[in-house]
Amino acid sequence: MYVATFDTLMGDQRTKTTFAEVIQGIIGSDSLCASQIARFSPRLASSQWADKRVRRMATGESTGRSRSDADSLMAALREEAIARLRGEADLTLVLDGMELRRAGATAQAGLMRVKV
Questions:
Q1: Is pLDDT above 70 for 89?
Q2: Which residue, 69, 56, 57, is CA-closest to 20?
Q3: Would 37 be classed as within a structural domain?
Q4: CA–CA separation, 116 vs 113, rounded Å?
Q5: How many CB atoms lie within 10 A of CB 113?
Q6: Which of 1, 10, 23, 38 to pair with 62, CA 20 to 30 A apart?
Q7: Residue 100's pLDDT band (boundaries 50, 70, 90)?
Q8: How many domains does the chain fold into?
Q9: Which of 96, 104, 80, 43 is nearest to 57 (CA)?
Q10: Would 76 be classed as within a structural domain?
Q11: How far apart are CA 65 and CA 87, in angstroms?
């Protein structure tokens, strides 16, 4: 699975499974709403409190034995991208700036500067 890049950051099997299911839920639901993520993840959907599990992971409450903070995840993602792109002659970048125009986008430090 494509989230295997992050396996070394997950402290235990449950955190690893939850992380993979959250990613699958985000992709399946096309949403960042915890209840939608949980509904589109087969393993999480069967749990009574799945949306709370998603929220705990997102806020870092359930990741005490892992290094799944934003900086660690971004570092692992950068390393994977560099490894995959190394040696490529051409690179095409497609950027959708739509999210930059929504309310609250200025609070997202990882994004480029947004006109207010």
A1: yes
A2: 57
A3: yes
A4: 9
A5: 7
A6: 1
A7: low
A8: 1
A9: 43
A10: yes
A11: 36
Distance in angstroms (rounded) separating the CA atoms of residues 97 and 113: 11
CA–chain centroid gap for 16, Å, is 12
- Domain limits for position 84: 2-107
For 8-63, the pLDDT digits (tens) are 777 778 878 888 888 888 888 888 788 888 888 888 888 888 888 888 877 777 65
- Residue linked to tokens 């903070």: 69
Overall residue count recorded for the chain in this entry = 116
Question: Which long-range contacts (C-beta less than 8 Å, at least 24 apart) are formed by 46-49?
Answer: none
Token pair for 74:
């971004």
Position 113 in a domain: no
What's the gap between Cα 100 and its chain centre? 18
DSSP codes joined into one string, 68-114: -SHHHHHHHHHHHHHHHHTT-S-------GGGGGSTTGGG-TTSPP-
For residue 53, give the H/E element and its range. helix 50-59
* pTM listed for this prediction: 0.57
Question: Is 114 domain-assigned?
Answer: no
